Amino acid sequence: MRQRSLIAITAALAAGALTLTACGSRDEDGGGSSDSGNGGTTVVIGVDAPLTGDLSALGLGIKNSVDLAAKTANKEKFVEGVTFKIEALDDQGQASVGQQNATKLVANKDVLGVVGPLNSSVGESMQKVFDTAKLVEVSPANTNPALTQGVNWQKEKVRPYKSYFRTATTDAIQGPFAAQYVYNDAKKKKVFVIDDKKTYGAGLAATFTEEFKKLGGKIVGTEHINPESKDFSAVATKVKNSGADVVYYGGEYPQAGPLSKQIKDAGAKIPLVGGDGIYSADFIKLAGAAGTGDLATSVGAPVEELPSAKEFVANYKDAGYKEAFEAYGGYSYDSAWAIIEAVKKVVDDNGGKLPDDARAKVVDAMQNVSFDGVTGKVSFDEFGDATNKQLTVYSVKDGNWATVKSGTFTG
């Protein structure tokens, strides 16, 4: 996670960046092509993320970062005559709620793009709704390969939905990248694999397992946990008795933190390794001292270490958001900015005004969007996947996530 302690440090280094001023709030009636206050058209960017519940730390970081992108575009008058506003909906990490939110966003004619969601299972439930409405969706966090490459992606890649894009790289890369680090760098040869049975967690665990076995590693046990539970003592005992020298967990931090603690309490003093779903300051809080030495992979290079991100970090701080931007802040900003770039292209191509079929035109424009973003070069391949394939391994050290290694997966 882009941990809180680093935000202040990096912001200080980037001092002098302009303080952003807030724009007016959205009209109560949704206000579409109405006057926006500066003689232009209002374009709404939808946001779907878990804004309450266990995963809200990540969700609020997504929402705030999209808000910052909209404010920046307005301040710069990036699209002449267009004012950007956001409509943020809470999916609570639930696929059924996400689908309802997708329907609600489609119904607002001013929404020309949506950033989100966090969870791959939620993304899966929203894709058809958006695609039918020709409304572009850009996720900063979905990593399950099937969302862009089809359910049989390992044998034949087929893009299911033209309107779906993402700025995060996929578990087809993240799982194997982690396996290579665990086997080659950390020198761990016996792993116990656990997942939460959800789209993201199970998919990530599967791609890790395949690569780890290919490298010569041994899977000494597998287990599925109930994500609604917080008592993992039974599986912790199985881990202890398996002789594993590392645990790989496919899932998210609300379960991973207690799981790590209970595995250590059971007597297995071995690291827990997970993906970007556990890369949060909240994992460290939940795991306590037991989390020291645990590892996580996350998409991209560390935002705090990218020269391109210094202005974002400083501006985020200056904007006064109460919550940290967390793991997906930079990717959320870039997702929103990709929508803004696509809207600009559509407006420019239509003589400075939005065409009647703006949504479909924005979907088409998104395929060719390319710019230097917070997270590096932002563009999309033929499947709607990010062309940036970089990943980073982090370790819990002195109560924070510390960068261990950045790179790309080599198959």
UniProtKB/TrEMBL annotation:
Keywords: Signal. The keyword Signal applies. Residues 42-399 form the Leucine-binding protein domain. The keyword Signal applies. It comes from the Bacteria. PROSITE patterns: PROKAR_LIPOPROTEIN. Residues 1-22 form the signal peptide. Pfam families: Peripla_BP_6 (PF13458). Belongs to the leucine-binding protein family. This is Branched-chain amino acid ABC transporter substrate-binding protein.
